[in-house]
Every structure is written in structure tokens, then in C-alpha cells.
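Title: Prediction job returns without error message
Component: structure pipeline
Severity: low
Priority: P3
Assignee: unassigned

Description:
Job completed but the reporter wants confirmation the result is attached to the right record. Sequence as submitted:
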Amino acid sequence: MRKRFCLMLLIVSLSIISFLAPSLADEGVPVAVIENASFDFGTIYEGVDVIHDFKIQNKGDADLEIIDVKAG
């Protein structure tokens, strides 16, 4: 009985996935292209502010949403 239930669940899951897959494939995908992904600031002393602009282009078909940026 459990085998039959698992098999039915698998068939239903695959059916749902195959139904949704074409609609998901039609959507565009954002592609972030970063000119220079890293930058060496050299020696930075405590309390000194440093600034550098990173140029990011979206070469994809959908909107690129940058949610979070962290210094590394």
C-alpha cells in the first residue's frame, strides 16, 4: 500500500512539474556582468572612509535586483 502511495505521489509531482516547466522557461533571466569584481584599496587606516564604484550591467532578459552587498 505504501509503495503504491509513493508511486502515485511521484506521478502527480512529475505531472505538476512538467505542466509548470514551460511557463517558467518563458520568463527571462537576469545576467549580472561586473567589470572588475574586486578592487585592492591598499593599506587603509582605521577611521578613514574609502569609496570605489563597481560597474554592474544587466545583460539578461529580466530585471536584475540587487538585494544585498557585503564587503569581503
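Comment from assignee: result matches the submitted record. DSSP finds one helix and two strands in the chain.
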